[in-house]
Write a structure and sequence with these properties.
CATH topology: Arc Repressor Mutant, subunit A
Number of helices: 4
Radius of gyration: 18 Å
CATH class: Mainly Alpha
Structural class: alpha+beta
Order of helices and strands: EEEEHEHHEEEH
Helix content: 25-40%
Number of domains: 1
Strand order of the largest sheet: 4-3-2-1-8
Distance between the termini: 64 Å
CATH superfamily: Winged helix-like DNA-binding domain superfamily/Winged helix DNA-binding domain
């Protein structure tokens, strides 16, 4: 049996196997999806993790918009006291994704930083297309899209 994978960074401890984040002795409440984002970033610490990779790993059979991921990143930064403009923990890599940048230390009794997470099999162009369509529809409903063309009639 593998020991718990617990790592510290700054004044935080993350327990990957029990889905817990601690600041000292105080547990920090995160939604399950937000913790899943943290886990994935920690397991790929120092690497750029694309938004597409996060969507595939964390929402494999669900169509979600970019807003779901953005919400998780905002919640993580708030919980960690991180600033997007001067990040200490989660760096935004413009137009690509995110990178966990804090140095990780294994807790006593553990000798390594997190291993890379096994990737789920990539598959289904349909899922990618459905995700893109859902994001486009969401953006269009919110008024952020350029979906309307000259050949489309509004209200007709």
């Amino acid at each position: 049996m593998q020991p718990d994978r617990q790592f510290s960074f700054a004044r935080y401890t993350v327990d990957l196997d029990n889905a817990q984040l601690w600041r000292g002795k105080q547990a920090i409440a995160l939604t399950s999806q937000t913790f899943a984002v943290l886990r994935y970033l920690v397991e790929h610490a120092g690497q750029v993790v694309t938004k597409a990779e996060l969507f595939e790993a964390l929402w494999p059979d669900t169509v979600v918009s970019d807003g779901a991921l953005t919400f998780c990143i905002v919640e993580l930064r708030k919980a960690l006291g991180d600033n997007a403009k001067r990040p200490q923990f989660i760096e935004t890599v413009h137009r690509r994704g995110y990178r966990f940048i804090a140095p990780l230390s294994p807790l006593p009794g553990q000798s390594t930083v997190p291993p890379k997470m096994d990737h789920r099999p990539r598959g289904g162009k349909e899922r990618k297309v459905a995700r893109k369509l859902a994001a486009l529809l969401s953006a269009d409903v919110q008024g952020y899209s350029r979906l309307m063309g000259q050949d489309e009639v509004v209200g007709g």
